[in-house]
Design a protein that fits this description.
Layout: H1 6-47, E1 69-71, E2 78-82, E3 105-107, E4 114-115, E5 128-130, E6 135-136, E7 152-154, H2 169-173, E8 177-178
Parallel strand pairs: 2-3, 3-5, 4-6, 5-7, 7-8
Antiparallel strand pairs: 1-2
Length: 181
């Protein structure tokens, strides 16, 4: 029978303690991140006037459990928001893009949202942006090109000046830009 060294037992115990500590740290960081994202989304809900269509958003549940929210599988961070056809009538606050390190998809289509699109330029990781069928107005800023990850953009049925089609012509060549009269 092999005799176990007391040093190997101590080393194993220290290794196990370090592993457990790292696991608890990772869980704590994920929880802190989810709490921060929940807070941003609940603030968004308030700024939108707490529409009945998103009443499931509350402080006692995870944003990943809300039907309008898509989360990453590994770290549970919010990567998508779909507020399609939610009867939203208020301007979207810039705080939405505080999720920008992870936010890849944003669908605000078929609402009554007024205002411009400048606030969305801070959502630098967006790959999918659907602003169609709203009341967005004003110029489309030339620096919309800074959304370098964007793969799909739909601004159909808004109140943008026709002259700004030229600004977005670069997107059409990549097949990501959609505009109709």
């Amino acid at each position: 029978m092999l005799k176990q060294s007391p040093f190997s037992s101590i080393a194993f115990a220290l290794l196990l303690e370090q592993f457990m500590s790292m696991s608890f740290q990772a869980i704590s960081q994920t929880t802190d991140h989810l709490n921060a994202e929940r807070s941003i989304l609940l603030d968004l809900k308030l700024q939108l006037g707490s529409p009945p269509s998103i009443q499931l958003w509350n402080s006692s549940s995870s944003p990943c459990d809300w039907p309008e929210i898509t989360c990453a599988l590994l770290n549970k961070s919010v990567i998508g928001i779909s507020l399609h056809n939610k009867n939203i009538t208020r301007k979207i606050p810039a705080t939405l893009c505080h999720l920008h390190p992870n936010l890849k998809s944003l669908d605000l289509s078929n609402n009554y949202i007024p205002g411009g699109v400048r606030d969305f330029l801070n959502c630098s990781k967006l790959e999918y942006l659907d602003l169609s069928h709203n009341y967005f107005t004003g110029p489309i800023p030339p620096d919309i090109r800074q959304l370098s990850s964007l793969r799909y953009l739909d601004i159909t049925a808004n109140h943008f000046p026709v002259i700004f089609r030229r600004i977005l012509a670069d997107y059409r060549s990549f097949g990501i830009y959609h505009w109709s009269e």
